[in-house]
User: Fold this.
Amino acid sequence: MERWRGTVVAPADLELPLVGVPEGTDIELDLRFESVVEGVLVSGTARTTYTGECARCLEPISSPVEVGLQELFAHPGPDVGEDESLLEGDLLDLEPVLRDAVLLELPQSPVCSEDCPGLCATCGVRLAEAGPEHRHDSADPRWAGLAGLYERMTNENEDRES
Assistant:
């Protein structure tokens, strides 16, 4: 068994639509390599920080993420499946394993806080900054014709009474 601790940089496409690990960001690895009959078993953890936007209010967010890694890198041979990771001489490629683990751990809809109220649908202001008194008094445009009718009927009734 061999242990390795070190830092690598994040690859270019480690991201989802709203969050991701920026290219060049440090990823701390703590790995253990074990020789087994089938090949080399790699297990350990990876720690980094993701950045992105809140899905509700679009404010920038950043948070640490830690993922567990475990992958068997098989010796080349006739009975090795095509979806298995292979040893290439003394080398193994951890990038696909790391990418899958980190992307599965990133939130699909990240939020800056669990109680984030989001944006006002009318004016786009952040509701957390606007406060509870933020309102827009606007009538539904589908009722605009009836509002005019009401005005005319009220005016006609007032004219008859006077």
In short: The mean pLDDT is 87. Residues 2-105 form one domain.
